[in-house]
Design goal:
- By secondary structure, the chain is of the alpha/beta class.
- The chain has an 8-stranded mixed β-sheet, sandwiched between helices.
- Strand 6 and strand 7 form a beta hairpin.
- The protein is globular.
Length: about 375
């Protein structure tokens, strides 16, 4: 039977462990912190119990899942793992050092995986003697609830390593989307305009309530500003700046001053009590809600089309990734079908014509949209 190891037993790591034990896999878990190790089993037990209460697991299945989870004190005890997933802090030096340690403990045929959401998998692979055994397995938070997992491979990736990672994760009920090692992978890259264009509207003088109200009316469960408030304006700014730098400061990823001002003022979203929109949560749609939604969706379409132009996943996979990873009501290419190529292209042209100098090039249409 395949044995899976999870290193890092915070909320994300424990959630990943839950995904696999519930699916029938034996999971070894460890953490550098003794307190995290000491509390991990109780934390998993509570999570499984909540699924029993909600009717998603039987008591017997929950007990069996918990029995398949074993906490160990150090990396040496993970030697028998077939797949080892690191889920520690999002820090390149820390992840690189841990992956190198894991490689020295595991068998040469074992698969290593990083749960990074923002670091380059290739950059992490440079610390390894067998970089072909490393893949990215990007789970979304919380792992038990979110169906999408991005599988990131490198040109040197051993097909057997990618196959094992995909098979066990699909067996655990997840939808796995393969993607290249590029900034933001699929979801975090293609979702940038959802936030960015909302912030552009905010800087142009539109109210947060108008912007989010328009997107709620268009079928979104949460508007872009409300979602930033949920994530944390500081966390979102850091992610934006990372992607902006990774794409050589391209204006499609521009970090808007409206966001930076909120962070500097301490308005960090729900965790601070004040954010871009919060404490307001369900604003009404403005009279021009359709135009606001079209603008944001046109830029979402364009970003996805640029990813396809760069050799990214197929359109259908990008749609699946955004629907599952972001809970969007439709994917970018479904948006394109809804609005039509001519309307999307004209919307981008209008935005480009009116863009300030620092956003020049932000609305350049991808080749797919220019054709026809």
């Amino acid at each position: 039977m395949t044995t899976i190891a999870v290193i890092g037993l915070g909320a994300m790591g424990l959630g990943i462990a839950q995904v696999y034990v519930t699916a029938g896999f034996a999971v070894l878990g460890t953490d550098a912190g003794s307190n995290a190790r000491a509390t991990a089993r109780d934390g998993l037990s509570r999570a499984l119990s909540s699924r029993v209460t909600s009717g998603r697991l039987t008591p017997d299945d929950a007990a069996a899942a918990l029995d398949r989870f074993r906490v160990v004190d150090d990396l040496d005890a993970l030697a028998a793992a077939d797949l080892a997933i690191e889920a520690i802090v999002e820090d390149k030096a820390a992840k690189s050092a841990l992956l190198a340690q894991m490689e020295s403990v595991l068998s040469p045929g074992a698969t290593l995986a990083t749960n990074t959401s923002s670091l380059g998998v290739g950059d992490l692979a440079t610390a390894l003697t067998r970089p072909g055994r490393l893949v990215g397995l990007h789970f979304f938070n919380p792992p038990p609830a979110m169906r999408l997992v991005e599988l990131v491979t490198l040109p040197v990736t051993d097909p057997a390593a990618a196959t094992l990672a995909r098979q066990v994760t699909e067996t655990a009920g997840k939808t796995v989307i393969a993607c290249a090692d590029s900034p933001g992978f699929v979801v975090n890259r293609c979702a940038r305009p959802f936030y960015g264009e909302a912030l552009a509207l905010l800087e142009e003088g539109r109210s947060p309530a108008d912007i989010d109200g328009a997107m709620l009316a268009a079928g979104y469960r949460l508007g872009p500003l409300g979602l930033i408030d949920l994530i944390g304006t500081d966390v979102h700014l850091a992610a934006t700046e990372t992607i902006y730098a990774a794409f050589d400061r391209h204006p499609r990823y521009y970090p808007f001053a409206a966001l930076r001002r909120r962070v500097l003022s301490g308005h960090l979203g729900r965790k601070s009590g004040i954010g871009l929109l919060y404490p307001q949560t369900m604003p009404a749609a403005p009279a021009d809600a359709a135009a606001i939604a079209l603008r944001i969706e046109a830029t979402l379409v364009n970003e996805a089309a640029w990813l396809v132009a760069a050799g990214g996943p197929a359109a259908a996979d990008i749609d699946t990734a955004l629907r599952l990873g972001m809970n969007f009501p439709r994917g970018p290419f479904e948006m394109l079908d809804l609005h039509g190529r001519d309307r999307v292209r004209q919307t981008l042209a209008d935005l480009a014509r009116n863009a300030p100098p620092h956003l020049a090039g932000r609305y350049d249409a991808a080749p797919l949209l220019q054709a026809g």
